[in-house]
Amino acid sequence: MPRRIYTSCTLDCPDGCGIVATVKDGRVVKLEGHRDHEFTRGSLCAKTYRFPERVYSPERQLYPLRRRNGRLNDAWERTTWDEALDLIAQRIRRYASESGPLSILHYQRTGSWGATKLLSRRFWNLLGGVTTTVGSLCSGAARAGQALDFGVRNGHDPLDILNSRLVLLWGRNPMATNLHIVPLLRQVRSRGAQVILIDPIRSESASLCDRHLQLRVASDAELAMAMAKIILEEGLQDKSFIVRSTHGFAQYRALLESRSLAELCAACELPEAEVRSLARLYATVKPAAILLGWGLNKYQHSAEMFRCVDALGALCGNVGVAGGGVTHGFNTQRHFDKTVEALDRAEQHRTIPEPLLGRSLLGATDPPVRMMFVNAGNPVNQSPNSNVVARALRTLEFVVVVDQVLTDTSDYAHLFLPTTTFLEEEDILVSWGHNIIGGVNQVIEPVGEARSDLWVFQRLAERLGFGPEMAGTPRQWLKRIFAPLERSGVTVEQVMEKPVRCPVAPVVPFADGVFPTKSGRFEFITKLEHQRRIVPGFPLTLVTNYSKKWLLSQILEKDHPKPFIRIGPATADEYGIENGDDVIIRSPVGHLRVEAQVDDRVGRGVAVMPVGTWIKRGGGANVLTEDIMSNFGQMAAFGETRVRLERLPRPATGREPAAVSQAQ
Ligand SMILES: Nc1nc2c(c(=O)[nH]1)N[C@H]1C(S)=C(S)[C@@H](COP(=O)(O)OP(=O)(O)OC[C@H]3O[C@@H](n4cnc5c(=O)[nH]c(N)nc54)[C@H](O)[C@@H]3O)O[C@H]1N2
Ligand SMILES: Nc1nc2c(c(=O)[nH]1)N[C@H]1C(S)=C(S)[C@@H](COP(=O)(O)OP(=O)(O)OC[C@H]3O[C@@H](n4cnc5c(=O)[nH]c(N)nc54)[C@H](O)[C@@H]3O)O[C@H]1N2
Ligand SMILES: [Mo]
């Protein structure tokens, strides 16, 4: 008899879907949307419908692997869990006693947002503290910028979109990355609301919109300032909100006055009339919501870009009101009891900035890093400047990777531990894009000898003498992590039964006019110093976007595309490139051989490449990106990378694509 089991997708995506899985003879045969999930409402994205293909893929690793003679160039061979865990425990002991525990780097990202993943940190803290990463590959600049303005980054509940009369999709592409807000946008539009896209590329989401402003890449601060100048010039600001709830308005106004409108419009390459019309619309059609994305989060001055957009919200009183807001996302796990991480047990602690991973590893002394333990992340593929990250990993004595498949990072590992997918685990999900808490019930037994991160750390703790402090079933740990929410009236048991709305998450943040800033008010940006980065010989800006077809680097070989870039017709003409030509795309730090697609949706001055294709399959946008950190928020400024194109001779026989060479 097939069984139907409720679970939730824990992958790194704002939608965090509620799922009903069908299991037959111990195998998951179908995933469907859970109908009672208030946000995902019974539908999944194509990737999640197909997730069982990943679970049972021949690429999935089912046993622990080690290098035949211990060296990176050796082939993998199967080993046992006992042998693998003994070896890790022995190495941890050795490095800790010889060089101190700071010679070990724990690198964990958000491959899964399951609550139990917090416990990986507990392990290293109980050990006395190791080196970890700080900063961000994902939301750092947005968090930092919005924290300066609002006191905290806290978005509106996505269902509040239904109260909006105007929605600006600002550097966000929900048709690809946040599918479940698409029906909400369609619904408000059918009631007469307008939806406007602000993006240097005509993305898939343009089809949802009434209008598209194709601004110059990374000119969002200038656009927001130009709009603000027009709003003030025409007296359309919300004077009472400014007086009642904001701080720093006079200096903000002075900042705007230091730039002319013509200069600002020229910087974003938009006609003044277009900017004026948007400014009027935003200031007069209320309530208006701004949905900020990750597009404008990838530049050196991204925090300031967010702040300039936040300022528009405050200027027009579109803050703290239903249907309004300047929303990016939520600080997701803020309601959990994070003391389970046992930070107080870390006697030592050292951090290295995630955006500068490669060079920080190479430069670490006192002590140098000797061992790295990676779980739920693929830093060689996803960190900027992949070549330097790879070079740094090569210098380490011992690298362990815990993953499901042999990623680009596992090429630099001495030991590979196979881990479970969310269908094989019990956990709880809180999302960074909505307020429904998801129960993650174990749907199937672990495939092969795959084990959860928690299981791995528990077995290691036993070997290192603190087993009892890591011991406990997932349910026991979930009870502890979830305790603050249980006190607010929702139990773990309820959450495991069906999707439940978080009782303490507001639909409209800041509705009481109180902001956790120093002044207790919304704080305007008052200073902006930014010089556009010019790299002689590399005239194009590299834009790296998400693909609708896959999540981050989680692409099976059968679905892996031939690596490609997209350029606009003007750029193609300049380089004499035709659609389908093979080209070299070169940055100051690396190059790739890719197919050029000439696409009139792409504006001038940029080359666009999707994130996540594999380096060992000829892709990997981060082979090109430079490791540059944002001014605020320790964010990887992927978008500061400049590139040029080099046309390759066309094959004599027709248009067959030449073989893709391995990236350097
Ligand atoms: N299918 C799929 N969904 C995903 C993911 C995935 O890999 N695949 N990843 C998930 C994750 S981790 C994240 S963080 C989110 C990200 O979700 P999004 O923010 O929607 O994704 P991005 O592709 O980073 O950027 C969105 C848009 O910003 C535009 N953009 C680039 N530069 C600029 C700029 O300077 N100004 C403006 N205004 N726009 C700019 C891009 O052209 C792009 O269309 O998606 C999540 N969802
Ligand atoms: N050039 C460029 N680079 C980018 C970005 C960009 O816009 N441009 N965006 C950045 C963003 S927004 C993000 S979020 C990061 C993402 O960077 P990463 O978090 O490194 O993302 P993934 O490549 O998905 O790697 C996660 C890995 O975890 C594995 N995994 C899944 N679940 C589990 C689990 O429960 N346990 C363990 N041990 N492993 C698990 C998956 O198989 C996968 O290999 O990339 C960033 N990189
Ligand atoms: Mo992300």
Walk me through what this model shows.
The chain is of the alpha/beta class and 664 residues long. It contains 22 helices and 27 strands. Mean pLDDT is 96; it is low at 657-664. Bound molecules: ligand MGD (2 copies) and molybdenum atom (MO). Molybdenum atom (MO) binds next to loops.
Strand and helix layout:
Blueprint: E1 3-8, E2 18-24, E3 27-33, H1 46-49, H2 51-55, E4 65-67, E5 76-78, H3 81-99, E6 104-108, H4 118-126, E7 131-134, H5 140-150, E8 166-170, H6 174-177, H7 182-190, E9 194-198, E10 211-213, H8 220-233, H9 239-245, E11 246-247, H10 249-257, H11 261-267, H12 272-284, E12 288-292, H13 302-315, E13 326-327, E14 350-353, H14 357-363, E15 371-375, H15 379-382, H16 386-394, E16 398-403, E17 415-418, E18 427-429, E19 436-440, H17 453-463, H18 467-470, H19 474-481, H20 483-487, H21 492-497, E20 500-501, E21 522-523, E22 540-545, E23 564-567, H22 569-575, E24 582-586, E25 591-598, E26 606-610, E27 642-647
Parallel strand pairs: 6-15, 7-14, 8-9, 8-12, 9-10, 11-21, 12-13, 15-16, 16-17, 22-26, 23-25
Antiparallel strand pairs: 1-2, 2-3, 4-5, 4-17, 18-19, 19-20, 22-27, 23-26, 24-25, 24-27
The structure holds ligand MGD (2 copies) and molybdenum atom.
One ligand MGD binds at residues 12-14, 138, 170-173, 176-177, 198-201, 203, 217-218, 220, 293-296, 543, 545-548, 551-552.
Please describe the structure with a list of short key phrases separated by commas or semicolons.
single chain, 664 residues, alpha/beta, Phosphorylase Kinase, domain 1, Rossmann fold, Dimethylsulfoxide Reductase, domain 2, 4 domains, six-stranded mixed β-sheet, six-stranded mixed β-barrel, 22 helices, 27 strands, 28% helix, 18% strand, disordered C terminus, binds ligand MGD, binds molybdenum atom
